[in-house]
Amino acid sequence: MVRHRAPHGALLALALFAAVRAAGIAAVIATNALTDRPLVRSLAHSWDSRWYLNIAAHGYGRLIWITPTGGVQSDWAFFPLYPALVRAAGTVLPLTPAAAALLVSWTAAVVAAYGVYLIGHHLYGRATATALVALWAALPHAVELTIAYTESLFAALAAWALYCVLKDRWLWAGTLALLAGLARPTGFAVAAAVIAAAAQQLWLRRGQVAPGVWAAALLAPLGWLGYVLWVGRCTGDLTGGYFAVQGAWGSRIDFGAGAARFVGALLAHGGQVIYPVALALVLISLVLFALLCLERAPLALVAFAGVLVLLVVFGSGSFSSKPRFLLPAFPLLIPAARALTRTWRTRPASALLVGGALAVVSVLYGAYVTVLVHSPL
């Protein structure tokens, strides 16, 4: 078990996180009510949520979707850890599948926020750690941490794996990275971070490292690789089957060609608010990544955030989903958290105004994207 002493101030940070995200959940429920929808429909039955609930109830290979162009989309595109936890929660507790899914997501969100706080506290102290958690809670798409999606689970595993790297708990880091690889297609970003940090240790210590470092590097990619190979086996193409499944969903590496076409179409024809906001958030992520590098943040954090940013920029797929893919990349917020901490020390009223404004925008925009917009989350 990962052991540590809870640092002073953690409860305040978690209370801020819970307050902002609870307000976001309430806003979604209220918007559902105002638009005559079932109150928790947008929390538990939006887009990918329905696929996860079906996997939790019936397993894989039971649901496909034929697209208007004749493409065949299957449930093998969705990684197994989240539906497995949903099924387990529904088996142990008297909950509907939707309630079990929300319980898993909300619990994972709090665990993730605590991991984010621990990393911030370890590197920069209590004030910056609190600011980091608060900013993460107030991201425009942070509502997606508390719907029946995998972002909160993935973020929890990633945060704790990275914290274990920083604390030299290598076996735990490798194990958590393995689990992260079973949670999302982007799970190999955690494996890349653990492997990069292990390689750095080998370089700095000229190969004289504890066996746990080697074990972590070997364990880290096994979850992702295992699922990819399992899907390949099920489809009859061991090494290419998984990528064919993802390709049917429009998910592939196109080195930014799709993003360039999207930007061109957006400039030429315009679009819903969600699209320019998504583009702005992707561009901001590039700036934040550059600032993170200038901060000389630990290699594991830089590698993790960098892989996620690269996947968003070079990957195809719906542009409206890209901000969600960036949600787990909390290290990108470190420069902003440090700046907000400096502002708090000199002009606390300004820091509160900025934080409060971000929280209000997050709550309102979260309800908008989950209830009112008809684009993929």
TrEMBL record:
Membrane topology classification: Multi-pass membrane protein
TM annotation in the entry: 98-119, 131-150, 170-197, 209-230, 273-292, 299-319, 353-373
Compartmental location: Endoplasmic reticulum membrane
Signal peptide coordinates: 1-22
Pathway: Glycolipid biosynthesis; glycosylphosphatidylinositol-anchor biosynthesis
Key word Thylakoid present: no
Keywords attached to this entry: Endoplasmic reticulum, Glycosyltransferase, GPI-anchor biosynthesis, Membrane, Signal, Transferase, Transmembrane, Transmembrane helix
GO biological process: GPI anchor biosynthetic process
GO molecular function terms attached to this record: alpha-1,6-mannosyltransferase activity; GPI mannosyltransferase activity
InterPro entries the record matches: PIG-V/Gpi18
GO cellular component, one term: membrane
Protein name: Glycosyltransferase RgtA/B/C/D-like domain-containing protein
Organism whose genome encodes this protein: Streptomyces bauhiniae
